[in-house]
Write a structure and sequence with these properties.
The structure is a single chain. By secondary structure, the protein is of the alpha+beta class. It has 4 domains: about 220 residues, Histidine kinase-like ATPase, C-terminal domain (Heat Shock Protein 90); about 130 residues, Ribosomal Protein S5, domain 2 (2-Layer Sandwich); about 100 residues, Rossmann fold, CATH 3.40.50; about 130 residues, Up-down Bundle (Four Helix Bundle (Hemerythrin (Met), subunit A)), CATH 1.20.120.790. It is built from 19 helices and 22 strands. The chain has a 9-stranded mixed beta sheet with strand order 1-6-5-4-7-3-2-8-9, with helices on one face. The chain has a 5-stranded mixed beta sheet with strand order 10-11-14-12-13, with helices on both faces. A hairpin with a 2-residue loop joins strand 12 and strand 13. Helix 15 packs across helix 18.
């Protein structure tokens, strides 16, 4: 049996494909040098957890030092960085197996042992360990030209030193008594010249807080040899505690970690158990982020695996929830070797689905329990949530229930579709809406006149996304959405609010002839000219055909270059309007004037639709002739 007294240093080659493999791992597996500290701290946390587990059966292993800890020491003068733990430690054989064989993970072997005990029905306590692949240790060679590992296994008097320059070989020898910790492992990194920034306390603190601030072992930092340690992380993670035990102000303080300065409008905290276990803590802000509509913006959801930060680029939530901030901590999510690139897997898909579903479900509950609080969230983020109606077919029904709208009849600030359907008029078979560039434009549109006259509620949509989701053929409670600016209004079966208006006479022969004259005069400018039952006060309006996009969407697509030219609109004329009746009554000798009037009526419809006259010069000339005629009379 080899003891520390008679053991001599021996030079051994790595058991894997030596220097080339090691070089490939160090320079290809990881893209960010900062991860070396995360990996070494994760290994230290695993060592502490393994000791805790083994001490259940052998309490003497803890000795007089029962509290787990990790300490990071900076020595800028000597260009060294030390990571030390008081965990399980390593024997000589442990070092050869764990450090001398690439991709042989002691944590993985320990987990296999636990699993074997479970299958053999042997009692065991669950252990929370991080390492899986046995490669994280070697990330140290990204920043160090030599790594010395001093370790003493719990319950042993012997201490050992493993040392390597990461180029193909390593040494294992007896360590002096004062070189190794009383129990656990001390890793000393002799930093490369370009790794000198890792002797800056601020940089080390930042890396630890971001990547390892929630591992289940307290972490302290020593700014220089001989200085007192300062605790950076207390080994606690807020999201691991039961929700009833967390105060609102604690949630708010944690919310600040995501760079937020406002108060969270809603907190979603839950633990999923069963086939896939994970914990999620998410916040909906009360203020709109300045980059909310940035095309490159993603949700601020961080991914942790067993409380170790992995990435904030996992796209946990769909884009229409990109304003949500928070995290997901999974115990069994499969990762790539570097933990930086997440393998797409059924587990990840299930997590995404569950987190998004829970957030939307809690929003539904809030909408029912606290209308004012929900409306505040909708006012800030409603225009983004509506993107999901267009993009997320699976959750469309849920999103439609969450949607709130301004309308022509409601005095409430926000109307739900459930409320709208409950107030449908007799013979009304559709949910009517009007979309436009601004709230003032849609509210003053002449297309609403006939609907107002019948007391029919029309949704007023002025967000850019409204023109998109309304054309994705959604329906709610069996009622399709229909634009009031497209196709026929189909209002004949719905009575007017004022009964006396029902006695309005049918279109006269002269008006019918005038409408035919306008159609002939405008020619190819329009696709049709017809009488309107949607107008009551205005003389004219433009509508889109039944097929294709409505006017708002078509203009949006044209402005973005996705449609080369606008389709020809339909000009609708109000046959009951006094101006139309007067023009229809003019004799044959007024043909030139009537032609000017036909073009001016079309230009008027364009202006009411938010556009400019088709030919500004011709418009000005016709208007001048009209004014001269008025002065002569």
């Amino acid at each position: 049996m080899t003891t520390s007294a008679d053991a001599k240093p021996e030079n051994r080659a790595f058991e894997a494909d030596v220097s080339r493999l090691l070089h490939l791992m160090v320079h290809s597996v990881y893209s960010d040098k900062d991860v070396f500290l995360r990996e070494l701290i994760s290994n230290a946390a695993d060592a502490c957890e393994r000791l805790r587990y083994e001490a259940i059966a052998a309490p003497d292993l803890l000795g007089n030092d029962p509290k787990a800890r990790i300490t990071v020491t900076i020595d800028a003068e000597a260009k060294k960085l030390t990571i030390e733990d008081n965990g399980i430690g390593m024997s000589r054989n442990d070092m050869v197996e764990a450090l001398g064989t690439i991709a042989r993970s002691g944590t993985k072997a320990f987990m296999d042992r636990l699993e074997a005990n479970k299958e053999a029905n042997k009692p065991s306590e669950s252990a929370t360990l991080i390492g899986q692949f046995g490669v994280g240790f070697y990330s140290a060679f990204m920043v160090a030209d030599r790594v010395d590992v001093f370790s003493r296994r719990a319950g042993s008097q012997d201490a050992w030193c493993w040392s390597s320059d990461g180029k193909g070989s390593y040494t294992v020898e007896t360590a002096a008594v004062d070189e190794a910790p009383a129990r656990g492992t001390r890793i000393i990194l002799h930093l490369l010249e370009d790794a000198k920034p890792y002797t800056d306390r601020y940089k080390i603190e930042q890396i630890i807080r971001v990547n390892s601030g929630h591992v289940p072992v307290p972490i302290s930092i020593i700014e220089k040899p001989g200085a007192e340690p300062t605790e950076l992380a207390d080994g606690a993670a807020l999201w691991t505690r039961p929700r009833p035990d967390i105060k609102p102000e604690e949630y708010t303080d944690f919310y600040r970690n995501f760079g937020a300065f406002d108060e969270p409008a809603m907190t979603v905290h839950f633990r999923a158990e069963g086939r896939h276990e994970f914990t999620s803590l998410a916040f909906i802000p009360s203020a709109r982020p300045f980059d909310l509509f940035d095309a490159e913006r993603k949700s601020r959801m961080k991914l942790y695996v067993k409380r170790v930060f992995i990435t904030d680029d996992a796209e946990i939530l769909p884009r229409y929830l990109r304003f949500v901030r928070g995290l997901v901590d999974s115990a069994d999510l499969p990762l790539s070797l570097s933990r930086e690139m997440i393998q797409q897997s059924p587990i990840l898909s299930a997590i995404k689905k569950s987190v998004a579903g829970r957030i939307l479900g809690d929003l539904e509950k809030l909408a029912d329990s606290d209308v004012d609080a929900y409306n505040k969230i909708w006012d800030v983020f409603g225009s983004v949530i509506k993107e999901g109606i267009y993009e997320d077919y699976e959750r469309r029904e849920t999103l439609l229930k969450l949607a709130r709208f301004r309308s022509t009849t409601s005095k409430e600030p926000r109307r739900s579709l459930k409320d709208y359907v409950a107030d449908l008029k007799p013979n009304q078979t559709a949910i009517y809406y009007i979309a436009g560039e601004s709230a003032s434009q849609v509210e003053s549109s002449p297309h609403l006149e006939g609907f107002r006259a019948r007391g029919i509620e029309v949704l007023l949509l002025s967000d850019m996304v409204d023109s998109l989701w309304t054309t994705s053929m959604p329906s709610f409670d069996g009622k399709p959405f229909k634009s009031v600016t497209q196709g026929g209004a189909d209002l004949a079966l719905i009575p007017l609010v004022d009964a006396k208006d029902e006695a309005t006479p049918d279109t006269t022969e002269s008006v019918t002839k005038f409408i035919a004259f306008v159609k002939l005069t405008l020619g190819e400018t329009v696709s049709d000219v017809r009488t309107s039952d949607r107008l009551t006060d205005s003389a004219v309006c433009l509508v889109a055909s039944e097929q294709g996009p409505d006017r708002s969407l078509e203009k949006l697509l044209h402005g973005s270059g996705r449609v080369a030219a606008l389709s020809k609109p339909i000009l609708e004329i109000n046959p009951r309007h006094e101006l139309i009746a007067a023009l229809a009554g003019l004799g044959e000798g007024e043909k030139d004037f009537k032609e000017d009037a036909a073009h001016l009526l079309y230009d008027e419809a364009l202006v009411l639709d938010g556009d400019r006259p088709a030919d500004p010069k011709s418009f000005a000339m016709r208007l001048a002739r009209l004014m001269k005629r008025g002065l002569r009379s």
